[in-house]
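Hi, here's the filled form for the chain we discussed.

Project: internal
Contact: R.S.
Residues: 176
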Amino acid sequence: MREEGGGAPGNARRLPKATAKEAAWAYLNLAVLWTFAVAQPLFDLLKDNPEFFAARGSTGFDIISFSVLLVVLPPLLLLGIELLLGLIRPDVRRGAHIVFMGALVALIAAQALKKSIDASDTVLIVLSVAIGAAIATLWARAEPVRSFLNVLSPAPLVFLLLFLLSGQISELAFPD
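And the returned structure, exactly as it came back:
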C-alpha cells in the first residue's frame, strides 16, 4: 500500500486504500467463516427437510438462487461495511475485519460447544466469545492462521455444491 497526495496546495493527503487483492482475501475469509457458521448448518437443516421448499412451491431457480445468495451475499455485505469503514482509516477497516471474523468464529464455537458440553447458555456464550476473540487475535498476529483460512477458501463453493447436488434437494433444484 502506498500514500498519495500531499505536497501541493489543494491536494488533500489520501490514506492508503485496500487493494483489490486484499479485499478479495478479506471476502474469502468472511465467506469461509460465514459458510461454517451459518450457511452449512442451514443447508444441513434444509437437506433433512426438503419439504420446506416443496411446501412453498419453490422452483429450481428459487432453490439455486436462495442457496447462492446465502453463501455469497452476507460476506459481501460485511466486506462492504469494512471497505466503507476503510474510508475513515485503513486500521478501522482491519479492526472491523477482525471483529467480524471473531463474531463468526464465536458462532461456530457456540454450535460446537453446545453439542459437546453440557453447560448453561451463559457459559456457552462466554466461552464462544472468548474462542472467537482468541482465534481472531491469532489470525491478526500469526501468518499460519491466515494461511490456514486461505486454504479453506474453496469451502463455500464445496458446501454449496454438496447441498444442491444432495438427494431430494437435487431433484427439486434440477427437475427433469
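Let me know if anything looks off before we file it.
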